[in-house]
Amino acid sequence: MPCSASASEAGPQAPFRITWLATDTSLSFNALATKSADLAITYHPYAAQIAVQQGIALPPIYLWRDAFNLVGPTSNPAQLPTDGHPSIFELFALLFQSAVASADSPAPTRFLSRYDKSANNILESRIWATIGQTPWSEPYSPWYHKFNAFPKEALFEAARKGEYTLVDRGTWISMKDQPEMSSMTCFKEGAISWHEQPTDMKQGHVLNGDALGNPAHALLSPHAQDRELGKLFLKWMLWTRGGQEVIRNFKVNGTPLHGLSPWVQTFFGGQSSTGSNESSTQNLAHNCGQNAAATGPEHNRHGDQPISAQCNIDSKYWII
User: Fold this and answer.
1) What pLDDT digit, counting tens, does each position of 183-204 carry?
2) Which residue ranges does the record assign to the PBP domain (predicted)?
3) Could you check whether the bond before residue 142 is cis, i.e. omega within 30 degrees of 0?
4) Residue extents of the structural domains in the chain
5) Beta carbons of 95 and 164 less than 8 angstroms apart
6) Is the separation of the CB atoms in 13 and 5 below 8 Å?
7) Mind listing the pLDDT tens digit for each residue in 265-303?
């Protein structure tokens, strides 16, 4: 599925094409390892760092911020609060208690898991494990429905069966008004705005309020057929008037789908696509040369002023 984009040192000029391979997060790492893909967008930061250590990827680039939602039947057999205040861990604990208590009920509480090693499945498993439950283990919990499918199909199945499930924000926004979703509602939304997160979260810690966050990172293969073109594409993706403007303006049914990269928001001092941010982009390019690089926000606390001594394309954190 080709699409057009463009990149240059100061901004878009010459177009280039991208061929997309439909995979999930785990398969994306495999595609890099087997050199089937030059660049992958993944949703698991720790696995991304392992890929770097294994030599199958350059340091990850934080492109945008996605999130997951907890959705379920409007009949709400688990009687989950609908005000959004309880943490996702508290809601999962209530789901577990209700699922066990209603096992013999004509309207039992059930949970659908994609069970496919996707970012969705990894996050859901981590939440269950955090509250001390592994319903997929032996003895198997009958209320835990394993359904290996892509997001749209999994959400349709949850609606048909009257089950709770995690779903990515984009899938829910694009489908929630369809007739098949009339029996489903959202009980907890993940946040996509970086500025709304607690200070500790910005240091990299996962707190209750951000457990549904889904950061998207780009991994460029060191064996890419055209490594320099890949770097230019990623630079365009982080440009406030390039990829970040596309991300900011991308909406589904009138609702913004993703949050901007916190690297851009922190390094360039905000979300605006004009004015000082544009100047900061030019300063970064000037100080760091054609392949400009700098450390990420946890290492750079100097607003929009690049640190030229850290302009190393092979540094642990980089902006190109």
Assistant:
1) 999 999 998 875 554 433 333 4
2) 14-238
3) no
4) 69-194
5) yes
6) no
7) 544 444 333 333 333 333 333 322 233 222 233 333 222
